[in-house]
Amino acid sequence: MEEQLWRAGMYQILAGLLTEPDETSAAVYVDDKAYYEEVCKQDPMLAGREKDWPVPPSTLAEWQQLYYQSFVVSAQKCLIPVESIYRQWTYDETCSLPIAKEKGHLMSDAALHMRKLYQEYGVELPESMNQQPDHLALELEFMGVLVELGNLERQRIFVREHLDWVVELFAEAREKNIPQYYQNVLNLIEVWLSIESGRLGERTGKNGKCS
After folding, report:
1. Which residues are 135's β-sheet partners?
2. Is the Cα torsion angle 80, 86, 92, 96 positive or negative in sign?
3. Dihedral over Cα of 160, 162, 165, 167: its sign
4. Residue 138: in which H helix or E strand, if any?
5. Could you give the C-alpha distances from 205 to 178, 193, 199, in angstroms and in order?
6. Cystine design at 8: which of 3, 41, 100, 144 (Cβ 3.0–4.6 Å)?
7. CA distance 168 to 107
């Protein structure tokens, strides 16, 4: 398996781990686990990490309950894995709205930029995610698209501009002590993004903005 293919595939399966489980999830999980194990053989940075793959509950009902506890119940108890929540709402100095310099609000500048990127690359935004175009699952999927296209500099810029906030997300997951399964999911994403940042840093050395 070529590196470009398994890297793109990893972003897709990690995004899938953050979606609400349904009747198809168990079958998809088996395939994704096998894919991850194959990637561990291909990527020396993941060698021996097969055990890191998160193991869900045995029933769909339990799995869904863990999802709700992690991402759906009150914001005081769960996570909102959306970039805007962790960003200043806007950097537009002409904006006079009270929330302009605050964090914790949806549809920030980051979300608007994600919409622009989807349009530029011909990526269709699911209707159900219309108000969360910068959800982590969508951003991981988009990164997979960039990997498929093969432009390393664009990948590096996207990681720097749109995935650096996840450090705060991971810390909050531990602080709020969300259910262990989804802590394991986020731990796996954290490890992967750390590896990817190093990989892209080694291969690119330019600065720029993702347009």
Report:
1. 82
2. positive
3. negative
4. helix 136-149
5. 37, 18, 11
6. 144
7. 18
Q: What is the pTM of this model?
A: 0.91
Helices (H) and strands (E) in the chain, counts: 8, 0
* H or E segment and range at residue 28: helix 25-42
- What pLDDT is attached to residue 77? 78
pLDDT exceeds cutoff 90 at 201: no
Mean pLDDT, the chain, rounded, equals 91
Task: Report in angstroms the alpha-carbon separations of 124 from 32, 165, 184.
Answer: 23, 23, 29
Alpha carbon distance 110, 187 (integer Å) = 24
Rounded distance, CA 120 to CA 144, Å?
Answer: 15
DSSP code of residue 19: S
Q: Do 77 and 176 contact (CB within 8 A), yes or no?
A: yes
Residue type present at position 180: Q
pLDDT in tens, 53-111: 999 999 999 999 999 999 998 767 789 999 999 998 888 888 888 888 888 899 999 99
CA angle 171, 49, 172 (to 5 degrees): 10
